[in-house]
């Protein structure tokens, strides 16, 4: 089977990540429990009419994909595969509100059209005139990894040459209210996001974002890393996480000692960070540990930024201090493992290797 390479990246998050020439040079600090993205200059990528009509999630996804495509030197791809846990939730909220307010009469279809989960992938494909495979996975917090696995299999089996893969989710007012009521969002009025991992309270800081990569079976000058493998486990007990980790490493002929850095999805929820602590305090106690959700918050496809982070570290051989959970820096970064779960479910492993 052919190898799979990450040839470019593009991310719009709560940090200034849309400029690939920088690597977390300037950190944005927040003191609230729900945070929005740092918006790029959308007019540089979209005409004024399109930017005005597009829902927030669509704009984020389209622009993040354009950044990735430009870096890869591509105008189009063979396939577009997207993951989204909530879809364009703001438009969904608007449509439902109009149904209630108008007593189910005289509804315009605009909000409904822009509310479906596959709207982002469809808009991207229309923009680049990609008439090939276009699929959107809605698998909660493993949506991005499922899209990544699909693309990996197609490229390994030589069914495509270049595939655009991404994860996108937005944050809506009603979503904030509902998740706040059930304690999925932290109840503190103000909280320093940079210290969230030591908060010892329930819930997370909710956010939004879009991260895209171009995967290819051909290495090029812009290549960031090689994608070795992806694994997804819907449900794992706390004691089985380490077992599945060893199985994942073994099937790829790796050991724990071969991992130079592990990227963990800790979000500061005292009830569920124990899954990450199980690894950080155990098998990876002597491995460099990296975190990112204190910077970008929690959303269903936040792990796509974890892959962005791993790829960026491998290419630049840099590790900003703001993402270090411990100080076990290796002499070189050759292999990185990314592990994520959300509220005890959808455990995912992604392994990247330096080219």
From TrEMBL:
Name assigned to this protein: 3-oxoacyl-ACP synthase
SUPFAM superfamilies: Thiolase-like
GO cellular component: cytosol
Biological processes annotated in GO: fatty acid biosynthetic process
Alphabetized Pfam families for the sequence: ketoacyl-synt
Residue span(s) of domain Beta-ketoacyl synthase-like N-terminal: 41-219
Molecular function via GO: 3-oxoacyl-[acyl-carrier-protein] synthase activity
Keywords: Transferase
InterPro entries linked to this entry: Beta-ketoacyl_synthase, Ketoacyl_synth_N, Thiolase-like
């Amino acid at each position: 089977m052919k190898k799979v390479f990450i040839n470019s990246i593009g991310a719009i998050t709560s940090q200034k990540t849309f400029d690939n020439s920088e690597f977390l040079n300037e950190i944005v600090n927040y003191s609230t429990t729900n945070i929005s993205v740092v918006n790029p200059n959308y007019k540089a990528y979209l005409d004024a009419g399109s930017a005005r009509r597009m829902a927030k999630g669509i704009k984020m996804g389209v622009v993040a994909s354009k950044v990735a495509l430009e870096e890869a030197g591509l105008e189009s791809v063979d396939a577009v595969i997207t993951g989204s846990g909530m879809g364009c939730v703001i438009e969904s909220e608007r449509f439902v509100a109009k149904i209630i307010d108008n007593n189910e009469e005289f509804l315009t279809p605009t909000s409904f059209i822009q509310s479906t989960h596959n709207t982002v992938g469809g808009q991207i494909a229309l923009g680049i005139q990609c008439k090939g495979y276009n699929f959107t996975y809605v698998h909660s917090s493993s949506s991005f990894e499922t899209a990544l696995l699909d693309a990996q299999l197609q490229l390994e089996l030589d069914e495509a040459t270049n595939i655009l893969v991404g994860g996108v989710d937005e944050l809506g007012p009603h979503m904030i209210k509902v998740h706040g009521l059930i304690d999925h969002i932290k109840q503190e009025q103000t909280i320093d996001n940079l210290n969230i991992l030591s908060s010892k309270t329930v819930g997370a800081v909710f956010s939004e974002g879009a991260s895209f990569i171009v995967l290819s079976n051909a290495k090029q000058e812009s290549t960031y890393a090689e994608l070795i493998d992806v694994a997804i486990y819907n449900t794992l007990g706390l004691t089985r996480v380490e077992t599945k980790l060893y199985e994942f490493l073994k099937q790829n002929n790796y050991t724990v000692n071969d991992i130079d850095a592990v990227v963990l999805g800790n979000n500061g929820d005292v009830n569920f960070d124990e899954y990450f602590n199980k690894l950080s305090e155990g098998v990876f106690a002597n491995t460099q540990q990296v975190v990112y959700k204190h910077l970008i918050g929690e959303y269903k496809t936040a792990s796509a930024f974890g892959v962005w982070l791993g790829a960026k570290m491998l290419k630049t051989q840099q590790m900003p201090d703001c993402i270090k959970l411990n100080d076990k820096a290796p002499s070189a970064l050759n292999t990185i493992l990314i592990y994520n779960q959300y509220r005890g479910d959808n455990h995912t492993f992604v392994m990247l290797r330096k080219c």
